[in-house]
Amino acid sequence: MIERSLTIVNCSVLIRILQRQECTIFPGFLNHKPGFRNQLLGYRNQHLTSRRYWMQMPETGVLIANAFGVIMVFISLGASVTVFPLWKSPEFLLPHRVVSFVFVNDNHFVMVELTGDYPMPTPTWYWSRFKSQDAAAWEMWYKQRLDAYTNWLESRRQPPGFVDLDKYGL
Predict the structure, then answer these.
(1) Which of 146, 128, 147, 119 is nearest to 62 (CA)?
(2) Predicted TM-score (pTM) of this structure
(3) Among the three residues 55, 77, 97, which one is the final residue of a domain in this structure?
(4) What are the beta bridge partners of residue 2?
(5) How many folded domains does the chain comprise?
(6) Checking CA distances to 74, which of 31, 85, 107, 142 falls within 20 to 30 Å?
(7) What transmembrane ranges does the database entry give (predicted)?
(8) What share of the chain is helix, strand, coil (3-state, %, to 5)?
């Protein structure tokens, strides 16, 4: 069931990318042998694609956010990010849908449903660099939640050069 769903999502993403030529912004995405994109996305394949062609999270979030018009949130202990659609304004995609993933056990992402006005991680550098003028409005729509995350992160940051000797039994 899950494998079939992944194939359907991958096919849908590929079709949208090829129709709109949105893949041109992804470095190296067009510079592969013929059929590479189809193979990468598991297109026309009943089984999962081999590991060498897997796409990585959260980079895949850029494709999903743009293909399906959703906000992607990736949460991990290392670095959490939000991915907004690159080309469409928030007004165009009402109501907003958020798809959230949490990195667990240092080896995989699990989809979770977050409720309420939870803090949202900082937008990914890729979105910040390549967003259209229309898409820039996403930051204003979610400013309070983005700021809440930044404030929370800053409150947990220790001063430079601070070492808690109690942690080391000293």
Answers:
(1) 128
(2) 0.63
(3) 55
(4) none
(5) 2
(6) 31
(7) 63-87
(8) 45, 10, 45
